[in-house]
Amino acid sequence: MNVQTLQYSESGGFSVPIGHQLDSERTLVLVFASPEFDHNLKPLEAIAAAYPRSVVVGCSTAGEIVGTRLTDHSLSIAIVRFERTDLALATAEVGQSKDSYDAAGSIARQLARPNLRGILVLSDGLNINGSELARGFRAALPSDVDGKPALELYKRYLGDRASALPAAALLFPLALRTSDHDTEPIVRTVLAVDEAEQSMTFAGDLPQGSRARLMHANLDRLVQGASQAASGGALGAAADSTLAIAISCVGRRLVLGERTEEEIEATLDALPFGSHQVGFYSYGELCPQNGASCCELHNQTMTITTISERN
């Protein structure tokens, strides 16, 4: 497996020349772009022209990652040429949030084949119901409330910090368990509060009957958690050539502030020597957790996907 990572900015252009040496039917090109490139297509067109036979995919970001660097107003790019891995591309249009479940089923059916080993999903982060998207993939692929208004209860826990809502909610997400059998909680971020309705809007479902625990952000533990995520990804990675796709929540970036690059330095340090890292900051992350077989929607989470080939 041959891996190359690079970056593009308006001021500096491509960090290394765009070539076509790695172009093939077994080449994956990942492009994570600042939203402004929706109106500046020249670098994207240059990438597509250089890799006409490859699978080229990407999305917009809330910050771009290459190696241990976090930048804005740029493109972060990874080019991976596999030796024995077949690639396939599938898309589904989601007109409304309620279509998220069906979209996942459509993509799963398009990709269905006996040798399918994994799906990397890039979706709209604001108009998609991520919980339904994850539930749709789980269904299509093989194998407590005490009566008080939600906002009133949440404010009671926050105390004096409640006056800073909704911004303060980034520091106090919820750890959600949907049943007693859940070994690990799922993090849910507060997106908005409605004083009139005394309600709260979260970035994902909170099924009735779930148990929610208030969390408090700790900067050191956020960095440590990113390192642990990378350590888990390193277990199945090849020592010689590995691509790590680091996707972290924009909420973590806002909380970490000037310490943001510490988490992407920690992830690369935990990966095998010689690994390449690329990624972006998102509005929700889809992945299994701690060896679980099913995928879930997460908020304020760092996810690491490692891609390598075995001999």
Summarize the structure.
This protein is α+β, with helices and mostly antiparallel strands and 311 residues long. Helices cover 24% and strands 27% of the residues.
Describe this structure in words.
The protein has 311 residues and is α+β, with helices and mostly antiparallel strands. The chain contains seven helices and 17 strands. Strand 3, helix 1 (42-50) and strand 4 form a beta-alpha-beta unit. It starts with a strand and ends with a strand.
Distance between the termini: 10 Å
Choose one word for the global shape. Answer: globular
Which percent range describes the beta-strand content?
A: 25-35%
**Helical content (DSSP H or I, runs of 4+):** 10-25%
What labels describe this entry?
7 helices, five-stranded mixed sheet, 311 residues, alpha+beta, 27% strand
Topology:
Elements: E1 2-9, E2 13-14, E3 27-33, H1 42-50, E4 55-60, E5 64-66, E6 69-71, E7 74-81, H2 100-111, H3 130-140, H4 150-158, E8 174-177, E9 186-188, E10 190-194, E11 199-202, E12 211-214, H5 219-234, E13 243-249, H6 250-256, H7 260-270, E14 276-282, E15 285-287, E16 296-298, E17 302-307
Parallel strand pairs: 3-4, 13-14
Antiparallel strand pairs: 1-2, 1-7, 3-7, 5-6, 5-14, 8-9, 8-12, 10-11, 13-17, 15-16
Helix pairs in contact: 2-3, 5-7
